[in-house]
C-alpha cells in the first residue's frame, strides 16, 4: 500500500515521522544530494550569513549573535540543532519560533523538489528552514553547523563570516579521533577572503593551515581579539574596535566570555555591513538564552540542567559547579548515549558528586541505567581510601531518576541533570516545562 501523500496541510508530527523513514541512514555525510535539491529550490539567501561550528559553545555563540542583532533592529533568522522539546525550536525568525503551519509549508516544498533524491532527516529539515529564511526578508541569518563542517548540510551556504568556537573529541566515528582531524573537518566552513573567527585558545595546526591555504581572513583569540574583566564588568578588544563596560552575559558559565568575544569579533569583522551600537551589545548579552546550558531552575534545591555530553563540556560543567556557592550534597541525574565517551565525561566530574542516579535512554544509541551505573561504579572504586563513597543507583529513564533525586535531596543541596540533550529534555518534560 503506497504511503499517503503529504502536503502543506499535513500535521507537523506526521511530517517528522515521515522524514525519519525516507533515507536508509540517519547520518549520511556529503553535500551532493543536498546541493542538488537546493538548486531545484533555487535557494538563495540575500542577507549576511554567519555560520557557527565547533565542538562546544556553538549554541551560546549563536544565541548571543541573534540577540545582539535583534537588539540592533535587524531582522534575523536563527537555525540551531538539535532541539530539546519541540522541533520548532530549531528555527526562529525575528526572535519568534516557527509555527507548525509555516514549517509544514516548507517541508511540502522540499518534498516536491527532491523527486527521487533521498535526504536524511537533518538534510531535509535544513533545506526547509533555509527556504523559510530565504522568504522572510532578513538582514542576517545565524546558522549552527550540525556535525563537523566539511560535509554538513549547512556547509552548502557560503558564509560571509564563519566561527569555530572550540575543537575537541566528539563524534569521532564520523570526524576522526584526534583534534587535528576534527579541526580540519570544522575548518571547511571557512571561506577564502572572508572573516574566519576561531575562539579556541589552542586551535589545531590543521585548522590554521587550511585557513591560510584558502586565503581566509583568520581571526584568532589572543591575537586578533580578546577580553578582560573584573567582578563588575568586562571589555572586548578586537583588531580595530573596543567595547568597554559590558555587563556579564545572562548565559551562565565559565566559557561564556570566550563565546561572547567570538560573537563580537564576528560583528566587528562585518561592521561595515551590519553596524551594531554599543547599547545593542549590552542589551543582547543580557537577553540571550539557551535552554540546557548550565541552566539553573528557580527554587530549592538548586537544579542545574546541562547537555554536556563530551569530556570538554564536562570539564566546563565541573568548573561551573566549582564556582557555585556551597551545597552540602550534589546529586547527579546522568544519562548518556552509547557512542559517547562515557568514562571521559565521568573523569572530568571527579569527586564532585555524592549521589548518582543513572538514567537509561531509549533507542538504539541509548545506554541503560545499569550500564551507566557500572561505569560510575568503576569511577567510585578509584576514590581515595577513607573518603565517603558516593551512592550509585540505576533507573529506567531520566524522569524516574530525577524523581528519586528530588525525594532524597535536601533543601540546600543541588541536583545536576546532564549527559545528553535527551536527558535534559526528559526531565524538562516531566516537570511540564517548555524549553
What is the strand arrangement across the widest sheet?
4-3-2-5-1-6-7-8
Return the average pLDDT rounded to an integer: 92
Judged by helices, strands and strand pairing, the structural class is alpha/beta
Uncertain runs are none
* Radius of gyration over C-alpha positions, nearest whole angstrom: 22 Å
Tell me the strand percentage band: 15-25%
Number of strands: 17
Separation of termini? 38 Å
Main beta sheet: strand number and arrangement?
Answer: 8 strands, mixed
Q: Total helix count?
A: 15
Proportion in helices: 25-40%
Given the C-alpha coordinates, what overall shape results? globular
Structure description:
The protein has 435 residues and is α/β, with parallel strands linked by helices. The chain is built from 15 helices and 17 strands. The strands form three sheets. An eight-stranded mixed β-sheet has the order 4-3-2-5-1-6-7-8, sandwiched between helices. α4 (100-114) crosses α5, α7 runs parallel beside α8 and α12 packs across α13.
Concise structural overview:
This protein is α/β, with parallel strands linked by helices and 435 residues long. It has 15 helices and 17 strands. Helix 3 packs across helix 10 (278-287), helix 4 (100-114) crosses helix 5 and helix 11 (311-322) packs parallel to helix 12 (342-349).
Question: What labels would you give this structure?
Answer:
8-stranded mixed β-sheet; 17% strand; single chain; alpha/beta; 6-stranded mixed β-sheet; 435 residues
Please specify the SSE layout and strand pairing:
Elements: H1 12-19, H2 32-40, E1 48-53, H3 58-71, E2 76-79, E3 91-93, E4 96-97, H4 100-114, H5 121-134, E5 140-144, E6 161-164, H6 172-175, H7 179-187, E7 195-198, H8 205-214, E8 217-220, E9 226-229, E10 234-237, E11 242-246, H9 256-269, H10 278-287, E12 295-297, E13 302-306, H11 311-322, E14 330-334, H12 342-349, E15 355-359, H13 369-380, E16 391-395, H14 398-408, E17 414-418, H15 421-430
Parallel strand pairs: 1-5, 1-6, 2-5, 6-7, 7-8, 13-17, 14-15, 14-17, 15-16
Antiparallel strand pairs: 2-3, 3-4, 9-10, 10-11, 12-13
Helix pairs in contact: 3-9, 3-10, 4-5, 7-8, 11-12, 12-13
Amino acid at each position: 500500500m503506497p504511503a499517503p501523500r503529504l502536503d502543506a496541510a499535513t500535521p507537523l508530527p506526521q511530517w517528522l515521522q515521515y522524514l525519519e523513514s525516507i533515507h536508509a541512514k540517519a547520518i549520511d555525510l556529503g553535500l551532493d544530494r543536498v546541493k542538488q535539491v537546493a538548486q531545484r529550490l533555487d535557494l538563495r539567501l540575500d542577507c549576511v550569513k554567519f555560520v557557527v561550528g565547533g565542538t562546544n559553545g556553538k549554541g551560546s555563540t549563536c544565541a548571543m549573535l541573534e540577540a545582539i542583532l535583534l537588539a540592533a533592529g535587524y531582522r534575523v533568522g536563527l537555525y540551531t540543532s538539535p532541539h530539546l522539546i519541540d522541533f520548532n525550536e530549531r528555527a526562529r525568525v525575528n526572535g519568534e519560533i516557527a509555527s507548525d503551519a509555516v514549517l509544514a509549508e516548507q517541508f511540502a516544498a522540499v518534498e516536491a523538489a527532491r523527486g527521487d533524491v533521498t535526504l536524511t532527516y537533518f538534510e531535509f529539515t535544513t533545506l526547509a528552514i533555509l527556504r523559510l529564511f530565504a522568504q522572510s526578508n532578513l538582514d542576517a541569518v545565524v546558522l549552527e553547523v550540525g556535525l563537523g563542517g566539511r560535509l554538513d548540510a549547512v556547509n552548502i551556504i557560503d558564509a560571509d563570516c564563519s566561527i569555530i568556537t572550540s575543537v575537541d573529541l566528539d563524534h569521532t566515528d564520523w570526524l576522526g579521533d584526534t583534534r587535528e582531524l576534527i579541526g580540519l573537518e570544522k575548518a571547511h566552513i571557512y571561506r577564502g577572503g572572508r572573516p574566519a573567527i576561531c575562539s579556541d585558545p589552542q586551535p589545531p595546526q590543521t585548522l590554521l593551515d587550511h585557513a591560510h591555504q584558502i586565503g581566509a581572513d583568520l581571526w584568532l583569540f589572543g591575537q586578533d581579539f580578546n577580553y578582560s574583566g573584573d567582578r563588575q564588568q568586562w571589555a572586548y578588544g578586537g583588531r580595530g574596535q573596543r567595547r568597554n563596560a559590558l555587563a556579564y552575559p545572562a548565559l551562565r558559565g565559565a566559557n561564556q566570555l570566550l563565546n561572547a568575544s567570538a560573537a563580537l569579533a564576528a560583528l566587528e569583522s562585518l561592521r561595515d555591513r551590519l553596524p551594531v551600537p554599543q547599547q545593542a551589545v549590552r542589551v543582547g548579552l543580557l537577553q540571550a538564552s539557551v535552554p540546557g546550558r548550565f541552566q539553573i531552575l528557580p527554587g530549592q534545591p538548586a537544579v542545574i540542567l546541562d547537555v554536556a555530553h563530551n569530556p570538554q563540556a564536562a570539564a566546563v560543567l565541573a568548573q561551573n559547579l566549582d564556582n557555585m556557592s556551597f551545597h552540602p550534597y550534589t546529586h547527579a541525574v546522568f544519562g548518556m548515549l552509547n557512542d559517547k565517551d562515557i568514562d571521559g565525561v565521568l573523569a572530568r566530574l571527579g569527586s564532585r558528586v555524592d549521589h548518582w542516579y543513572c538514567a537509561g535512554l531509549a533507542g538504539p544509541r541509548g545506554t541503560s541505567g545499569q550500564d551507566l551505573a557500572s561505569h560510575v561504579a568503576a569511577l567510585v572504586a578509584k576514590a581515595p581510601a577513607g573518603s565517603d563513597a558516593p551512592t550509585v543507583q540505576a533507573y529506567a529513564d531520566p524522569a524516574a531518576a530525577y524523581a528519586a533525586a528530588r525525594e532524597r535531596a535536601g533543601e540546600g543541596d543541588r541536583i545536576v541533570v546532564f549527559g545528553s540533550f535527551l536527558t535534559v529534555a526528559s526531565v524538562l518534560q516531566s516537570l511540564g516545562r517548555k524549553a
